[in-house]
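Annex B. Sample input.
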Amino acid sequence: MHVDHALSAPAAPLIDFAEFLAVDIRVGRILTAEAFPEARKPAFKLSIDFGPVIGIKRSSAQVTEHYTAETLPGRLVAAVVNFPPRQIGKFMSEVLTLGFPDANGAVVLFSPDLDVPIGGRLF
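Annex B, continued. Sample output.
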């Protein structure tokens, strides 16, 4: 989705609760963040621990505007864990790390404001 559209997008069509439950959004803790110079848009390769049920997954995240590879490890983040893996260059992104656009369209990570156990499912 283009940035301008993300800030002014109309509300999505109504869905029922079963459709919402089909999207598995979990909280995880970033273990590592590495530069991803091969990506078309600036991004990091993240390794995220979602606990014993989901395990450790990898994600490509375009969050270079507000975060550095040094500040990301240890952060709690939310991610969709049940999309099919997506090949990005030579990197396989296994989960979609979630964020919101700031006023300029740069990604701000979505995370709980209190410490919660990793692997918890959004409801």
